[in-house]
Design brief:
three-stranded mixed β-sheet; 7 strands; 6 helices; disordered C terminus; four-stranded antiparallel β-sheet; 16% strand; 222 residues; alpha+beta
Length: 222
């Protein structure tokens, strides 16, 4: 005779902080306030979030020799002691992103959170995996990354990489002048000069030659 063991319905007690209620998580809010007052006044300038994070990390390291009130050890000494009790880091870094399955449409676009991002035209109508990071959107197909864009927080925005469409434009060269993915594409002045020379010497075939110039060797790059 078999006896079924009871299945526990709750293995942990949940507790959530309420939005806008700093008193629910006082230590976190206190640390955020300290970092804002001491690391971000005056407002620092950085070329990227990666550079800004390096700046914050360096400021934190400068505090290692400080000794807080009520403690005999420095912050660095206390950190070293705490590390002996911590578990090792996982072998692979945690991907702080949202992952969703999507499909490339007929315009070689993938929709993520209301905005469309381009992929190379060779992946039209394929199933892809979208990784939405805070600042970037990465798109993979079959385990290989095929596109990466700065993330847009606009509504119904289109984010293009013109290189994704060059292979298609070689076959539809008439669309070169009005193709939406090429709008606002800033190229060196030498390309404008080359375009005029090729158009004057070769006419329509000159445009096909021009399209092949920005394409890297080995095909279109994501």
């Amino acid at each position: 005779m078999r006896h079924e063991l009871p299945v526990p319905t709750n293995l942990f007690a949940d507790r959530f902080g309420r939005p806008g209620k700093g008193n629910d998580k006082g230590k976190v809010e206190g640390l955020v306030g300290y970092a804002r007052r001491n690391f971000m006044v005056p407002v620092p300038h950085a070329a990227s979030f990666a550079e800004f994070n390096e700046y914050l990390l360096e400021r934190c390291r400068h505090r290692f020799n400080d000794r807080l009130r009520g403690h005999t050890e420095t912050i660095g000494e206390r950190l070293g002691r705490d590390r002996t009790a911590l578990l090792p880091l996982p072998p692979a870094p945690y991907e702080a992103c949202e992952k969703i399955a999507a499909r490339v449409n007929s315009l070689s676009l993938v929709r993520y959170r209301g905005n469309d991002y381009s992929v190379p035209t060779a992946y039209g109508h394929r199933e892809v995996l979208v990784r939405g990071y805070v600042h970037e959107v990465a798109i993979a197909c079959g385990g290989a990354e095929i596109a990466r864009h700065p993330r847009s927080y606009e509504k119904e925005d289109f984010v293009f990489n013109p290189l994704h469409y060059l292979a298609l434009l070689e076959d539809k060269i008439g669309a070169l002048d009005q193709a939406a993915p090429l709008a606002g594409w800033e190229l060196p002045e030498e390309f404008a000069t080359l375009c005029r020379l090729l158009d004057a010497r070769m006419g329509k075939p000159g445009k096909r030659e021009l399209v092949q110039v920005p394409a890297p060797a080995g095909g279109v790059s994501p």
